[in-house]
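re: the backbone from monday

yeah here it is again, tokenized this time
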């Protein structure tokens, strides 16, 4: 799973017909403390996430197990909106 923040949306008027009706989101990976990383992914939104929200992204075969994504050409899906991240001090 990837922890990320929704940075924007993707509009694709021509795409595989099995992706019709899906919202595509640009998600920037973040560290557990919320600091942004330099990596981005385009993911299918399965939870109605919005720009700025902290989300969980699943990829690969796990993405095709998300709600409504079976048998579709999907490599990444937003599978949850994160309410909080609690880090435990290891020291």
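seq for it, each position gets an aa:
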């Amino acid at each position: 799973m990837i922890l990320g923040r929704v940075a924007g949306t993707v509009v694709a008027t021509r795409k595989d017909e099995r992706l019709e009706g899906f919202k595509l989101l640009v998600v920037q990976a973040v560290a557990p403390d919320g600091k942004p990383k330099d990596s981005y992914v385009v993911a299918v939104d399965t939870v109605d996430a919005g720009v700025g929200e902290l989300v969980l992204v699943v990829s690969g075969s796990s993405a095709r197990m998300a709600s409504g994504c079976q048998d579709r050409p999907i490599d990444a899906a937003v599978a949850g909106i994160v309410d909080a991240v609690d880090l435990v001090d290891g020291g």
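The chain has one domain: 2-81. Residues 2-81 form a domain with the OB fold (Dihydrolipoamide Acetyltransferase, E2P) fold (CATH 2.40.50.220).
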